[in-house]
């Protein structure tokens, strides 16, 4: 999936819809973007609102589940299920999103 690079501030999160999928984009600065399914696999909290990135973890602040930003595995907290991670690379002004 390819889309125009969105204009995000560092640390900003944005849900996008592409090819019938919703993806939560998180911009880390430079050419680093993260992509996740937008709802927590624990009880479905909206991670655009409740998700934060701390170091190498995505944390859902609803019940404090921690997920690896690399592979989505649950590291700590209530969720036993992983979160889906999308691999994102940048090519000039485009984002290339892989499942
Ligand atoms: S809904 Fe995210 S930790 Fe419970």
TrEMBL record:
The keyword Iron-sulfur applies. GO terms for molecular function: 2 iron, 2 sulfur cluster binding; metal ion binding. PROSITE patterns: RIESKE. Keywords: 2Fe-2S, Iron, Iron-sulfur, Metal-binding. Gene3D superfamilies: Rieske [2Fe-2S] iron-sulphur domain. It comes from the Archaea. Residues 1-97 form the Rieske domain. SUPFAM superfamilies: ISP domain. CDD domains: Rieske (cd03467). This is Rieske (2Fe-2S) protein. It comes from Acidianus manzaensis.
């Amino acid at each position: 999936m390819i889309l125009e690079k969105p204009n995000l501030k560092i640390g900003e999160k944005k849900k996008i819809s592409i090819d019938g999928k919703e993806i939560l984009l998180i911009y880390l600065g430079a050419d680093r973007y993260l992509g996740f399914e937008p709802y927590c696999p624990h009880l479905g909290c909206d991670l655009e609102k409740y998700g934060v990135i701390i170091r190498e973890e995505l944390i859902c602040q609803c019940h404090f589940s921690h997920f690896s930003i690399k592979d989505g595995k649950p590291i700590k907290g209530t969720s036993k299920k992983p979160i889906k991670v999308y691999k994102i690379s940048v090519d000039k002004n485009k984002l290339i999103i892989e499942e």
